[in-house]
Automatic annotation (TrEMBL):
The keyword Nucleotide-binding does not apply. The active site is at H208, H287. Signal peptide: none annotated. It is an enzyme of class 3 (hydrolase). This is Acyl-coenzyme A diphosphatase SCS3. One of its GO terms (cellular component) is endoplasmic reticulum membrane. Keywords: Endoplasmic reticulum, Hydrolase, Lipid biosynthesis, Lipid metabolism, Membrane, Phospholipid biosynthesis, Phospholipid metabolism, Transmembrane, Transmembrane helix. The keyword Nucleotide-binding does not apply. Residues 1-14 have a biased composition (Polar residues). It is found in: Endoplasmic reticulum membrane. Belongs to the FIT family. Fungal FIT2B/SCS3 subfamily. It comes from Talaromyces proteolyticus. One of its GO terms (molecular function) is coenzyme A diphosphatase activity.
Length: 325
């Protein structure tokens, strides 16, 4: 039996041949994201119902405390508006605003159920799990640094201030900062809005676009990679199949007895699908073209480094691995 590391020790250019090519979504599949943003942005221009919602969102009576935590207005909106154009829509509050929790839970569900991790011989299992955790750490660190904290304000907030944005309309007492908490008010969108200010004037990279593209692409690459076991098993005449490195994979019988792997895969597709839908809503109702584009570019760069670069750069592949391989 070939060892798991045999192909990786090769000194020849790290290309995959024939059946050894990893079953991952092709890079071209990522085109769905720019297409979604372009279609949404065009729709926002041509449709009279797709009015910019920034000034008239309301808090739902069902979610008042979370809405106030998120600094959403509780004033009634002056005119009817598409449900998804409201910042307090249920999917924004309970799905996107805590989006990384959903991504993390879904990823862990894959890790704990997919035969590519649970049924592999122990050495291979540890290697695949470690690689998957490295990939998760990369995308999570990228999300964290871009949207939450980058040695102080997040990358998105720093970009906004560097491009001339600031926290306007602050009450005079908050306008001259002494402490870090007060400084945060003029340096971060969240603290500015929480203090009653208006975050305006700069280039506001769309955090929604960034997180929804990064999270959904991450889950799709992980899910498709992990589902190689099913595909391999279906191809095997005796119900067993060998993966690209000669390891025996799970059988069709295994997957029918235990429904969890298929359920976890379906869950991943649901979370990725809902992320895509919210991305489409963001494209229609929020932000400028350029702000959506910058969110997209940052997230695709992270996906490129995590999933596409390892396919051609052997030393990097040894560190991050390839899902299911
Ligand atoms: C030197 C390198 C240092 C690297 C540091 C890496 C640190 C990694 C931290 C790891 C944290 C892991 C947490 C995993 C578990 C969680 O998911 S808990 C956090 C849950 N929070 C969210 O899910 C928030 C998601 N929301 C957002 O990110 C934003 O709301 C938004 C979607 C970007 C929109 O932004 P708005 O400004 O609100 O519009
Ligand atoms: N699909 C969506 N549904 C609801 N609100 C959205 C949204 N996309 C963006 N927003 C809102 O638009 C603002 C800018 O989003 P972002 O910069 O993350 O793309 C945020 O408002 P708040 O900051 O007031 O919550 C965010 O909640």
């Amino acid at each position: 039996m070939a060892t798991a590391t045999t192909p990786l020790r090769s000194t020849s250019p790290p290309q995959f041949k024939g059946s050894r090519r990893p079953r991952l979504p092709p890079a071209l599949a990522l085109i769905i994201y720019p297409i979604t943003l372009v279609v949404g942005s065009i729709y926002s221009v041509v449709s009279p119902t797709a009015r910019h919602p920034r000034t008239f969102e309301t808090a739902s009576p069902l979610t008042p405390s979370l809405a106030s935590d998120l600094n959403l207005s509780t004033e009634p909106h002056p005119s009817p508006v598409n449900y998804f154009a409201r910042k307090n829509n249920i999917f924004n509050l309970y799905f996107v605003k805590i989006g990384w929790v959903w991504i993390t839970v879904t990823f862990l569900a894959l890790l704990l159920t997919q035969p590519t991790y649970t049924k592999a011989p122990s050495g291979l299992r540890s290697k695949r799990t470690a690689h998957a955790l490295v990939r998760y750490s990369i995308v999570t660190a990228a999300w964290f640094l871009t949207t939450q904290w980058f040695f102080g304000p997040a990358v998105i907030d720093r970009t906004f201030v560097l491009t001339g944005g600031k926290c306007d309309n602050l009450p005079p007492v908050r306008a001259s900062p002494d402490t870090w908490e007060e400084l945060k008010v003029i340096l971060t969108a969240a603290a500015c809005k929480a203090a009653g200010g208006a975050w305006k004037g700069g280039h506001d990279v769309s955090g929604h676009v960034f997180m929804l593209v990064l999270g959904s692409a991450f889950l799709v690459f992980e899910a498709v990679g992990a589902s190689r076991c099913y595909l391999g098993a279906a191809a095997g005449a005796d119900g067993k199949a060998k993966d690209d490195e000669g390891e025996e994979q799970t059988t069709i019988d295994d997957t029918t007895i235990n429904p969890l792997p298929a359920l976890a895969l379906r869950f991943a597709w649901v979370v990725a699908g809902l992320s895509w839908w919210m991305l489409f809503m963001t494209a229609i109702f929020f932000h400028t073209w350029l702000e959506k584009l910058s969110g997209l570019v940052i997230s695709l760069a992270v996906i490129y480094v995590t999933y596409l670069l390892p396919q051609s750069l052997l030393p990097w592949r040894n560190i991050v691995g390839i899902p299911g391989l």
